[in-house]
Amino acid sequence: MPENEQGRPGEGSGPAESAPDCEDSALPPIVQESELPPFGALRIFRGDQLARLNAGPVVTLPFLGRAGYVPKGSATLIASYPKTGKTTLLAVLVDEWVRDGNRVLIMSEETPRIWAHRIPTDAAEIWARVRIIDALGSHRESLLNHAAESPENIVCIDTLRNVLALEDETDNSKVALAVNPVIAKMRDRKKTLICFAHHVKGGGGFGRAIAGGHALFACFDTAIEIDRVPGVPCRRQVTGTGHLIEPEALLYEKTEQGGLVVIGAAASVARVEVARRIKDDVMSAGQSDKWFTRSEIRDALDDPKPGATVINNALSDLENDGDVVRERRSGSFVYQLSPIEPPGENINRDPLPDDLLSPPGSKGENNSEFDPLELLAIGQNPDPVTAPISDLPTPARGGGRSNAGVDPSPDDEVETAGPEILTWDALVKLNTPINKQSDHGSG
């Protein structure tokens, strides 16, 4: 049958059928969360309906006492190089989340014996709200179904590759097939999913260091990366990126007791910022003539307190810039703000010597009729370039050679060559040893 016989509007097959009525009264009501269809069924929303569902700011779980890192009800990936302390961080975060009123399910590759060492004995009552599954070697579907039906609102998988038994994490298609159903099912059950993964040895920012194909990074709403800080073995830096939030770079350290303490935002601990804080918040806040030791400077800094190496580097920068001065006292260095000269004093830091401002025979007296070039008409003995002013003979106005204070004899040999004439720059430098081979200019 020709196409124009199929009733297409405008092809001569008769009047076009009217479009269906799109009045709001004919639209289905906004779907409430309690009325969502079962997992796997199509869930279709209209744009204005979703706009009216906007719940405002993103709500996040606490992260070492900070907000803005792990959004509730979403999927977050936390990645770091092996043996960097992922599980130690997980244990601290779980304790924090439970104390905040949450329940946590952990599917772990580590044995119960290892977890027994991570849980403080005095926190047993708190950890009663936590369940840990020895998930290594378990069937993926069984783990997924159990997590979906469990009463916990937070599900943690450590690590994603070993617990889900990913066949090839460099194959983006296989990664997506294994990870997306987990994220979708947790999202459908309104659970917060936190998965842990490894970094590759080469490193890289903005997710490039996460092991495996880029699909793993792309599957999650937020990615947080944990990196070692060079020169500070117990310190780690947190960076992240996400769809809904942009986590602030954060520094934390492991204490001798095994806990984690936040040092502060990375920007606040950076070298330049520390130098500014030392100058403005410590040295300028008190007496300007006070001397500080390094330990006194660190104690005076507000939290976050930088490490000793960062403080030393910042003090070196301040000293090189002329903002502070340093002295050694009792075997250690002390620091002070550089003295500020009163305005108008010592403007000319390198004045010309009096010898160059006064004619011969009237040292120290100004003479407007004095020709400074006469001072250079002295021949070659002594050398006018390297000899100090006090050693130079009184120049003869006629341009010949003479000894100081002695009139030339008629029998003396008189040089026919004219006197050596230097430029004004050379005149200024006359009392300073310079390279004799430099270009003086001659006349």
User: Approximately what portion of the residues adopt beta-strand conformation?
Assistant: 15-25%
Q: What is the overall shape? A: elongated
Number of separate strands = 13
- List unreliable stretches of 5+ residues: 1-34, 362-368, 375-382, 395-419, 434-443
Q: Kindly name the structural category.
A: alpha/beta
Describe the protein.
Helix 9 packs across helix 11. Helix content is 25%, strand content 18%. The protein has helices at 47-52, 86-99, 112-118, 140-149, 160-163, 172-188, 214-219, 266-269, 271-283, 294-300, 308-320, 354-357, 424-428; strands spanning 60-63, 66-71, 75-80, 104-108, 130-134, 154-158, 192-198, 222-229, 232-242, 250-254, 260-265, 324-329, 332-337. By secondary structure, the protein is α/β, with parallel strands linked by helices. It has three domains: 60-268, Rossmann fold, CATH 3.40.50.300; 271-337, Arc Repressor Mutant, subunit A (Orthogonal Bundle), CATH 1.10.10.10; 352-443, no CATH class.
Key terms for this structure?
single chain, 443 residues, alpha/beta, Rossmann fold, Arc Repressor Mutant, subunit A, 3 domains, 9-stranded mixed beta sheet, 13 helices, 25% helix, 18% strand, disordered C terminus
Please outline what is shown here.
The protein has 443 residues and is α/β, with parallel strands linked by helices.
